[in-house]
Amino acid sequence: MSELTNIKQTSSTFKETMLRFAKNNMGFVSVFISVMAILFALLIGALLISLVGIDPWEAISYLWKGSFGNRYGFGETLTRFVPLLFSSLSFTVAHKSGFFNVGAEGQILAGAIGAVLVAAYVEGLPPVLHVTLAILAGVLFGAIWAGIAGVLKILLGSNELINTMMLNYVAVLLVEYLIHGPLKPADSYLYVSATILPSAKLPIILSKTPLHLGFVISLVVTVGVFYLLYRTPVGYQMRMVGANLKAASYAGVNIVGVTIVALVTTGGLAGMGGAIELLGTQYKVSNGFSLGYGYDGIGVAVMGRYHPVGIVLSTLLFSVIRVGMGAMQRGAGVPFPLLNVIQGLIIIFVIASGYLTNKLSETVIGGRA
Amino acid sequence: MENFMMTTVITWLTMSIRMATPLLFASLGGMLSQKAGIYNFGLEGMMLCGAYFGYYGSYKTGNPWIGLLLGMLSGALLGLLLAFTSIKLRVSQLVIGLGIGILGLGLTSFLFRLIGISDTVPAATLFKKIDFGALKEIPFIGAVLFTHDWMVYFAWALVILTALFLYRTTQGLNFRAVGENPQAADTAGVNVILYRYLAVIVSGVLASLGGAYLSLTQTSYFTENLTAGRGWIAISAIILGKYNPWGVLLASLLFGAADAAQMQIQVMSLGIPYQFLLMIPYILAMVAMAGVVGKVRSPAAMGKPYIKH
């Protein structure tokens, strides 16, 4: 009898100790829970691989070898990082300011179209100016593409989630049309746009790899985006609108103005991602130009919990998975769409794990610890 | 010439009904979920799973019914996932819906590539069209209305059943109350949580039926992203249909008619680039929503998790 009480006491002391630890290290605990959620998603991915008769360890070794195993793979991983980072920044800004933009995929394509017009057809510019103008064109086109859904929301209150999603399908078809017609060089047999001029190409920053200057630009822009969101009055108002529209409106925030800034930023970021991908990596617009970067960005932002460090780290992880998955397909025959399976699972597990974090902080703040 | 016009119109109407059916299943499902207060933004993923597993079951066993059951099971499981995470864990219904969408696309493409490695895609056994005998011979109407498979008529029957359930039964009243004012419903003794679970699971099953319709009556094969955004168009059909089963039927028919029209224009080869024709359903969805927003009242508690006090 006394032994039983003893055990009970020990276990309750253990619980108390754990809760006290959680109270003092809430940040650490929530990161830990997220990491567990991600590992869980990867584990299910590995299970799927073994279910279809492929050795998961062999597959995982390709994941590593492909992404970090050699100089080229390393460069490729950091190259994929760039459009992914822009895409997740775009989703983050949208999420924070209450404009639910799932249209980064379409805005990336729109940005690439804008950029290719300047980069392939405007001649005689010095490189710095040419690159800058091409990127600005990408920003403009991305913002316009998001702006269509934005105008429908501001003027009519139409649901931007569905509209931005519809615009993704339209953008894919628009690209398809352009590369079959107006943007296809007359002498080309392939359905791709004209190649951009040398003066519009972003320089390679790591020799013998595809890594280009866009990597640095993406990191600088990240700092800029979070500066805008957390250190400027308009950023404060954007977050206020996103957190509580009514409260923001009572506080006298110019909702329409703030929403316009938000949607120009979210669309512009995705468009910039498309432009930089064009100028640094692909040099021409083709059928599979984006291949889901826009949708990946949603997963990255959710996984990074809309936090700058979190986003950079989760972008890195997603680009490792993306590059590694290519190697896994070539080496072990694992079909590439496993990428989406893992992404879907990561989104589901990470936001579901938010429940645990909330529950824990309720308990801790409730003073029961 | 007149004869040609007639044939074109008949083909167009027949195709419209066919193209409307997957949307009708999915939007009825999505409407039920939203009426109970839960956003279902996972319709696209659920439809894809219905289409893939329907195809797989039918191709493996030669029996489309087994395929259909398998497809419905996948939809029910995704519905359960959405229900659990949004009702019990109270996570963002928008984000979890997107997660399900991405998961559905990935899982079906992944599994399909595993069996589709051989050069020809194996065909699944399709559901046969119902033979209406003499009815089919009625001029015009016979060709348009009595040349379909059972799933089309089943979808219509579901519209009637849903309308009767929602507006003519006590359970239907409770169901709507759960989405309008869960606190009041709870006070009146309605099991809010149970209704919401059932609504979301049923909505998953219906969406998967919409997907299975495509692979088991139309194409007989699966391709990656077979549904091509129909799950999202279904959501705008719900809004356009003002959250009413009859309205949803009309909205689905409108989108189906647009889809059928663009297909027919493609065949006529009038010189319009096919990419622009393919854009029509998506643009129509945006235009239609823009036309009705502000005039539609959505269920008051939609998207808000219910916390019992």
Description:
The complex is a heterodimer of chains A (369) and B (309). Chain A has helices spanning 2-24, 26-51, 56-68, 71-96, 104-121, 127-156, 160-180, 214-231, 233-243, 245-250, 255-282, 293-303, 308-332, 338-365. With 369 residues, chain A is mostly helical. Chain A has a single domain (75-337), classed as ABC transporter involved in vitamin B12 uptake, BtuC, CATH 1.10.3470. In chain A, helix 5 (104-121) crosses helix 11 (255-282), helix 6 (127-156) packs antiparallel against helix 11 and helix 12 crosses helix 13 (308-332). The longest helix of chain A is centred in the middle third of the chain and has 30 residues, at 127-156. By secondary structure, chain B is an all-alpha fold. Chain B has a domain at 14-229. In chain B, 72% of the residues lie in helices and 0% in strands. Chain B is globular and about 70 Å long. Classes of the chains: A mainly alpha (369), B mainly alpha (309).
Task: Write a brief structural summary.
The complex is a heterodimer of chains A (about 375) and B (about 300). With about 375 residues, chain A is an all-alpha fold. Chain A has 14 helices and no strands.
